[in-house]
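User: I'm writing a short methods note and want a consistent example. For Sugar-specific transcriptional regulator TrmB, I'll paste the sequence; you return only the structure tokens, no commentary, since I'll be parsing the reply automatically.
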Amino acid sequence: MSARDVLEHLQRLGMSGYEAKAYVALVGAGRPVNGYEVAKRSGVPRSTVYETLGKLVARGAAYELRGSSDATEYLPLPPEALLDRMRREFDGSVAVLRSALPAVAAAPEGHLIHGLKDAEAMLDRAEDVIAGARRGLVMSVWPEEMRRLREAVVDAAERDVEVSVVSFGEDADPFGGGRPGAVYQHKYSAPEAVLEDLGYRLLVVVGDRREAVVGGFGEGAAWGIYTADPAVALMAAEYVRQDIALQILADRVGAGEIDRLFATDPGLLRLLGRARS
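Assistant:
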């Protein structure tokens, strides 16, 4: 991880840009240093470095020391201790807000639905849905997106959420084949054929049949929606479950028999969009 990444994550945890730079400078010094040296090491302007250090001291991330010449020097709270403190404060705030926010929230006029304009927004929202699942998680996913979502899916399984995944390729199995009955590799229609037919990789993530992310990835673009409409979430979940059921049937009776049924039944043929004109 680069120094820039460290600064970015410290800011996500509540530090200002200058505070993060000053704290990293203190940690990197390995000894007590004065404000002038912190400014020199960090790039924080000398005109604001003492104000910035004062804020670090106020939040408990640094300590003031008096040197032999009565000059003020600064020592950082060790990183492990700082992170433990931040975690406690964060967890405490989340616990308070979990009960306080619903009390002040207005009842929605309708079920929430909003567009997702790019890959980052799609995957962030998908992670939210996975993290929020308490009973069931249903997904249709390709390896490219599973690389980002794998940890969240494994976490869901570890908290006893029932996971059902259609994977387009072996690399889309978050459990590496170690969880039978949870992941079904899409083989009846080869992933290459599906991609050629659709023109994009479809992502479907449904949590507890109450919220869903549905969207596509292709040609450097991504688009989709998040919805908390239970009817839409149910339809998305059933779409994936039917894909799973078809794959199980193909495994049991053979892909050739499934093809024969489709070829000889006009109704099935029409549903596949292959009916003759």
